[in-house]
Amino acid sequence: xxxLLISDFNIENLASYLKKELxxxxxxxxxxxxxxxxxxxxxxxxxxxxxxxxxxxxxTRPEGVLQTxxxxxxxxxxxxxxxxxxxxxxxxxLLRASKRTRAMFVPTWVIPPFHQTQGLLDLAASGGGAxxxxxxxxxxxxxxxxxxxxxxxxxxxWIQLGGPAAFNYRLWYLGKIPFSNEVFKAAARDIxxxxxxxxxxxxxxxxxxxxxxxxxxxxxxxxxxxxxxxGHDPAGEALVDFQRELKALTRRxxxxxxxxxxxxxxxxxxxxxxxxxxLKLDDFAGWRINWQDKAENIIDLMADLNLGLDSAIFVxxxxxxxxxxxEALPQLFVPEWPSDKRLYPEAxxxxxxxxxxxxxxxxxxRSQMLAVDRVRKESKxxxxxxxxxxxxxxxxxxxxxxxxANLPRAAQLLNxxxxxxxxxxxxxEAEFQAWATQKTRQAWTFRVSDRFxxxxxxxxxxxxxxxxxxxxxxxxxxxxxxxxxxxxxMLYVAISWARTARVQEVCANYRQTPKNKPCYDFFKKSGLSxxxxxxxxxxxxxxxxxxxAIRLISNxxxxxxxxxxxxxxxxxxxxxxxxxxxxxxxxxxxx
Length: 591
Description:
Blueprint: E1 2-7, H1 12-20, E2 28-31, H2 37-42, E3 55-59, H3 62-65, H4 67-73, H5 80-98, E4 104-107, H6 129-144, E5 150-153, H7 155-162, H8 169-175, H9 181-198, E6 205-208, H10 219-222, H11 234-250, E7 255-261, H12 264-273, E8 286-290, H13 294-304, E9 312-315, H14 319-328, H15 344-349, H16 361-364, H17 366-381, H18 386-393, E10 395-401, H19 407-416, E11 420-421, H20 429-436, E12 441-450, E13 453-466, E14 469-477, H21 486-500, E15 505-509, H22 517-524, E16 529-531, E17 535-539, E18 550-554, H23 564-567, H24 577-580, E19 583-584
Parallel strand pairs: 1-2, 1-3, 3-4, 4-5, 6-7, 6-9, 7-8, 10-18, 14-15
Antiparallel strand pairs: 10-12, 11-14, 12-13, 13-14, 15-17, 16-17, 18-19
């Protein structure tokens, strides 16, 4: 990736650490001459912008870009109005420059401790430097809040990690470098973690051992009553806090699962009965609790959850088990783990592999959805065949046009879904929205529910008309609902809409990646004819069938409202009545 670094100080050390830091992505960055902040942000034609950077870091000192704040640090009287006006002007420059990149990172402002030596006056309502710093940071954050491309980063965190020597006065006077290397290292780690999150590479699941990980002791020997967990024991208290932090991850959409060598009945009894257990069985997406090899269990569990090995982190107290899994499954992230249980919460919180740009309602409900899905799968084994099972699910799919409400989740799904993904495009919210608003294009989201519960927004479909052909661009579906005829329902929507545009054919060009073979396998059996290996085509003169077990619902009757009259103004073609109904039943396409 290519980055552009804009600063009012010498930022070359950050460029160096971004390049040398071992974690993905690989980065080459260029920096603007320090002190050229406003000129660079405001000049669209500046040579530095000729090659659009993948990301921009705009890292400044408040006294370097806000003259009024510099005056305040010199104990000169300043007005709040002047200070606010300068903050707003700087925010406007950032917003303007953000249109020239895919992502912009803006660290919050910090000041060195020698500017905070007024004692009681540091936080005074008038002239307090520390108080003014808080206020301008809040104002900047609020001014940038509506820009999905701009991502503020917490600069104060890097200063804390840098310790007492975070501000290096000697380096400042030698080379206009205000911070120590530890600060730049921390910044590089966070920026890379943010880029992984934006690219859909954040970890999705934590695989956990049980004995001496979620609790202290061996449950098979001590019984659940004899485990160390909670109470007044230091290790027990730390383990409860560790579970609380794991529980917090589930509210951000991170899944939990168990891979443990134990008797399943004994282990699950401990989870269910121990009064200090924060995590319950419903908090886990799945488990493999037996005496088999952990690497083999991980492969089996991840396949059952339809997740790639590279989306997981494995936590185990045993160095031997960690080494075994790390060697057998190099795609898996296996961090070193402290032997002191009191350090477990800190070890978990220090991981930078869960970063993501937003948290949606689907994220918050993901663990519960997976628990429901486990019940759903169990019901499948009670019936004789798949068709009977599908008929009992009472599946309903709500189709919505892409809009401001569903855009964050749609962009998240677009960027992190790998298996059922036709094109594997990666786009920011703003880019996806801008693409979809073109008059020859349409994009929908799909929300799936059944008698067991709501699976949330799990599908994206986009299509583009070009002359006599309509091309499916994005065909994205969460692995949680694959294989339940949702894929066919999405094709039904695409082809039905394309037929109103009077095209002759609907095509889908499969772009192969290392992970999206399930998408290719679906299209091979979808009924579309295959051309040249990767191009799938449907004759638009024919209606594509909707499975009888699926109930398709339009959110407001306007799901299909961008018709051929928009694409070809010379034509005025009535949308099929069955696409205007609030509920589209399968029997309309059968018989």
